[in-house]
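Mods, move this if it's the wrong board.
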Amino acid sequence: EPYGVCLGSPGGALHVAATFKDGSIDVWRVADSGAGAPTMSAMRTFKLSSQVEGCAFDDEVGRLFIGEEAVGLWALDLT
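Not the wrong board. Structure tokens:
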């Protein structure tokens, strides 16, 4: 089950990242389907070695920052 979530718009497209207690991070792109409900497509999955505490997108440089409990802060390039 997801432990946390963050939203951002690197490259001008809306993205969501879901974090999990096992260290997994799933990144999705969200788009307007034109039918009233958004569509989501999986972009990337990352796996860290311990629990993820939080995340934040840096829209200007296209990075996702992840706080890993047992290690520290990661900057993941999304481009």
